[in-house]
Amino acid sequence: MTLQQEFSKEDRGKLPMIFRVTLLSLLVLTVAATGMAFPQETAKPAGQQEVAPPEGIDVYEGVVKVGLGKYFYLPAAKGFDIVVQGKIEGQDAGFLAGKEIRVKGALLKDDPSVFVADSIEIKEGGQYRNVFTRTGEVTLEDHLSARDRQGFPALTITSANKSEEWEGKGKVEVYGELTRVKTADGQEGDAIVVRDDKGKEVGTILVDNETDFARYYIKKLRLFDQFWFYLNVKETVDLKVRRKTRELFRADLLFAGLY
User: Fold this and answer.
1) What is the structure's pLDDT at 182?
2) Which residues have a Cβ under 8 Å from the Cβ of 231 and sit 6 or more positions away?
3) pLDDT band at 49 (very low <50, low <70, confident <90, very high)
4) Are residues 152 and 236 in the same domain?
5) How distant, in Å, are the alpha carbons of 14, 36, 81, 222 from that of 28?
6) Are residues 180 and 150 in the same domain?
7) Number of domains in the chain
8) How many CB atoms lie within 10 A of CB 157?
9) Number of H helices and number of E strands within the chain?
10) pLDDT for the residue 51
11) Can you say whether the dihedral through the CA atoms of 152, 179, 68, 98 is positive or negative?
């Protein structure tokens, strides 16, 4: 019960003036103290991510297995994708693949699957040499968190003739196999082979664009033939071409994973 609720309006009118002034002063002090206890957060620029406080700094060592764009995978940091905000001696994270390193950093506050590198050292001749020190805020333009992926409904395609199964669906996930194809217009590119419940090929989804995050995960999944693709569905292939080639529709690839 608050101080205001403790006294009815009628009772407050009967209080001596000095007591009413004292009560009002207490209310003002209470509001002021509350504002000090719960300050408003300063708005962050769009896309910037908050890293855990300094006491959360961790260190991992080992040989980098996969690197692409601003992401790399280190077995010692199992379960994390390590992000490099900036260049490593003028190059992206692919530069680290196959190298023995030591990385210091912290987890993202809002996504504990992402480890932000604050510094990276490469081991050369038994000695570590610093090749990266983070100086800027973390921005993850193409990162797709596990929480965000839950909003992608699974797409079931049973026939190349049933365009209603994918048209207007927007962002979806579909299970398939990545392959290279030459399209009807003579262009070569990535495509996703989709099969029915019996394993029979239904058709292929033509991939127009791939994020670095998606390409990085495809490299991590190199030991698997089929997995889940997270897509942004675009235009349907013309019916005549579709019946001849079984090319279903075009899409942008946002992520690929085992689940």
Assistant:
1) 83
2) 155, 171, 172, 173, 174, 192, 205, 251, 252, 253, 254
3) low
4) yes
5) 21, 12, 49, 64
6) yes
7) 3
8) 19
9) 6, 14
10) 55
11) positive
Query: Is residue 211 within 8 Å of residue 254, measured between CB atoms?
Result: yes
Q: What is the pLDDT of residues 56-74, one digit of tens each?
A: 579 999 999 999 999 999 9
pLDDT score, position 184: 66
The pair of three-digit structure tokens given for residue 4, joined into one six-digit string: 């205001």
Domain housing 29: 3-37
Cβ density class 220-255: b for 16+ within 10 Å, e for less: bbeeeeebbbbbbbeebbeeeebeebbbbbbbbbbb
Q: Which of 139, 173, 206 is the last residue of a domain?
A: 139
Residue 42, domain member (yes or no): no
CB neighbours (10 Å) of residue 116? 23
- The verdict on 150 and 249 lying in the same domain is yes
Share of residues in the chain with pLDDT > 90 (%) = 66
Q: Note whether 249 and 236 are within 8 A (CB).
A: yes
Determine, yes or no, domain membership for 43: no
